[in-house]
Amino acid sequence: MSYYPPYGQAPPPQQGGGYYQQPPPGQYPPPQQGGYPPQQYGAPPPQQQPPYGAPPPGQYGGYPQQGQQPPYSQQPPPPPQQGAYGQQPPYGQQPPYGQQPPYGQQPPYGQQQPPYGQPPAGYGAPQGGYGGGYAPAPVPPTPPSVGYAPQSINWDATADANALRSAMKGFGTDEKTLIRVLADKDPLQVDAIRNTYHRLHRRDLIKDIESETSSWFEYGLVALARGPLLNDVHMLHSAMSGPGTKESVLNDILLSRSNADLRAIKALYHQTYHRSLEDAVRGELSLKTERHFMIVLQATRAEDAAPVQKPEVDRDVQELYNATEGKIGTDEIRVCSILSTRNDNHIRAVAFEYRQRYARSLEDVIRKEFSGHMEDALLFQLRHATDKYMHQAALLEDAMVGAGTRDKLLIGRVVRVHWDRANLANVRGAYEKRYNKSLAHRIRGETSGDYERLMLACIGERV
């Protein structure tokens, strides 16, 4: 993780994974938001950094489009359209409470993020209650991700549904059309295409794709056509079917998810396979790793908007020490409980304070005290909290590094990153920052044919 300089000072360049100047004790790094602007691959780096709170020049948070576009600051505002792909609200505006913003949005740059070196808003401040008591302020629940709750858009999918049918009808298959239609759609558009295809042609789009394509190209197209929620459910079932359990898939889909997303996954899994997800996971895992995932599946994680309170951070730091280095043996369940029920901002503060107090990283402690699947799961949760974009970049590299490509993991991770284009732009920037090469270049070296073209289209490359 990176540490931040005092407010008003620009961070020095990182050298060899070193740390930035640390803020004073009791002050925590701000949440990661937009930390990795997309790179113009092959172009020289910008000469100046923009002032804090302003987006970098160019295409911050944008998504590569076919053809050439003007700089972000010169683009005209998009016309209002419900659920438009990548639509951003006017600066400073948020959707009403309980409503999901249009697909691809993130909070306006600089909001929900304190200035450098300052703790989150409300940090350490008592909440006033009746009679001068202390009552916690109500915390709004984190809304489900796009595609994880019933939602419709005013968008006509007829042309795309007909194009898909024409591409698979008769002799031969038009693979380029399949890629063009499916690789750049958001979850709500995919649902509309799938439903329109069935209504117009009385056929199942996923079954047609499976009958007309093959190998990893088929696997990727089907993942796109299902949409994020349905694909999560199918991947979970596949990971727990047959000999052995694919622990990496369980980690990818279940860990560090919002309560709303986990509840949606559990509901659809039960509806699809007539068995609770808890029972399925319990039958595949054992001992304390099983208990770890049962805590996760309770979906009782602190909501993202919950403020970080220093007394709670200090208590968790002490409990983590007492459960690991401060005793003979390890209290695994206590560590699992803390990392599974706190939000990312809190975990980030705990990791920072742990290093300040004990002069070692929490990641090193987990590596020393744990092993196997539990170690991997705890590191997944910690790394996602400290830098979610760099963590996603590392997961993509992990699917490609070494002898042979773990294609199922690569496809699942590329498609999962692809659903949120603002997130994708940051992950691409993080990947290049860490590995000194573009994600597209890396994928080209590990895939080929229509499979390669589909993966490249999913990350916004022209194919």
From TrEMBL:
The residue ranges flagged as biased composition, category Pro residues, are 22-32, 43-58
Instruction: For this UniProt record, give its keywords in alphabetical order, as a comma-separated list.
Output: Annexin, Calcium, Calcium/phospholipid-binding, Repeat
Database matches in InterPro entries: Annexin, Annexin_repeat, Annexin_repeat_CS, Annexin_sf, ANX14
Q: Which domain of life is it from?
A: Eukaryota
Q: Where is the composition biased (Low complexity)?
A: 33-42, 62-72, 82-124
- Does the entry feature the keyword Transcription, yes or no? no
**Which segments of the protein form a coiled coil according to its record?**
none
Where do Gly residues bias regions lie?
A: 125-134
Start and end residues of each stretch annotated as Disordered: 1-143
What UniProt notes about the protein's domains is:
A pair of annexin repeats may form one binding site for calcium and phospholipid.
* Family from the record: Belongs to the annexin family.
Designated name of the protein: Annexin
